[in-house]
Amino acid sequence: MDLGLKGRSAIVCGASRGLGRACAESLAREGVNVVMAARRPDVLEQAAKEIRAATGAAIKTVPVDVTSPEGRAVLLSILPDPDILVTNAGGPPPGDFRDWDRAAWIKALDSNMLTPIELIKASVDAMIARRFGRIVNITSGAVKAPIDVLGLSNGARAGLTGFVAGLARKTVRHNVTINNLLPGPFDTDRIKAVMAGQAKAEGISLDEAMERRREANPAGRFGDPAEFGDACAFLCSAQAGFITGQNLLLDGGAFPGVL
């Protein structure tokens, strides 16, 4: 299927590794001119080099911290009016809520709620004026099924989800959609970090913890980031203009509910 994205422009945050990188690559494969943002210049540029080689797409890299106003200003100076915005930031660390002070909560909110909102605020009006825009927020399966040790993430991402639910109903008549992609257990560094904490708590090895999590999933495996990237590309497509305000869960069937 031709997704109708050739020549469009996109900002993808957290794009040097994992799910953000997968989204950047899937969009690049569709002919999108991608601006990849992440904190580490060396890792970011290597990822961009590999995506350029694989897709032939025009890729720019912006090594900034998008959770800071200064970082966002630099990023938006490179591409002030993207057709596509993919927000993404590393999840807060796991732990016990009793150990988190106000600073920990503010950092989580800045990264996983307020930064996406600021980026949406900076780009949505130009999308409305052009009558095309696709905003995808990478959140977490924990929005639908909270994980006790990920309380910082549960709270911040749920706040973003509520904000998006209202705004997405106002922008869609202008062909600007806003949706959230909720990853479950994908084969990324993030799941290894979370499972390392669980392994320590249970007194087992990381390998054993990973295998238990893998086998517990109805799919019997972890997700491939490329699957996630392609789902993102479809939500950004010309054909997806009637999908907005949704939370698309990609978790191999782990969530047992019907809604």
Describe the structure.
By secondary structure, this protein is an alpha/beta fold. It is built from eight helices and seven strands. It has helices at 18-29, 41-55, 69-78, 102-130, 151-171, 189-202, 206-216, 225-235, and strands spanning 9-13, 33-38, 59-63, 84-87, 133-138, 176-183, 247-250. A seven-stranded parallel β-sheet has the order 3-2-1-4-5-6-7, with helices on both faces. Helix 4 runs parallel beside helix 5 (151-171). The longest helix has 29 residues, at 102-130. The protein is globular and about 55 Å long. The chain starts with 8 loop residues before the first strand and ends in a 9-residue tail after the last strand. The model has no long low-confidence stretch (mean pLDDT 95).
Key features?
seven-stranded parallel β-sheet; globular; 259 residues; alpha/beta; 8 helices; 7 strands
Globular, elongated, flat, extended or rod-shaped: what is the shape? globular
Span between N and C termini?
A: 28 Å
Number of helices: 8
Q: Characterize the largest beta sheet: strand count, sense, and whether it forms a barrel.
A: 7 strands, parallel
Strand content: 5-15%
Q: Structural class, from helix and strand content?
A: alpha/beta
Radius of gyration, CA atoms, in whole angstroms: 18 Å
Beta-strand segment tally: 7
Report the order of strands and helices: EHEHEHEHEHEHHHE
Helix fraction bin? 40-55%
Mean pLDDT equals 95
Provide a compact summary of the structure.
With 259 residues, the chain is an alpha/beta fold. The protein is built from 8 helices and 7 strands.
How are the SSEs ordered, and which strands pair?
Blueprint: E1 9-13, H1 18-29, E2 33-38, H2 41-55, E3 59-63, H3 69-78, E4 84-87, H4 102-130, E5 133-138, H5 151-171, E6 176-183, H6 189-202, H7 206-216, H8 225-235, E7 247-250
Parallel strand pairs: 1-2, 1-4, 2-3, 4-5, 5-6, 6-7
Helix pairs in contact: 1-2, 1-8, 4-5, 6-7
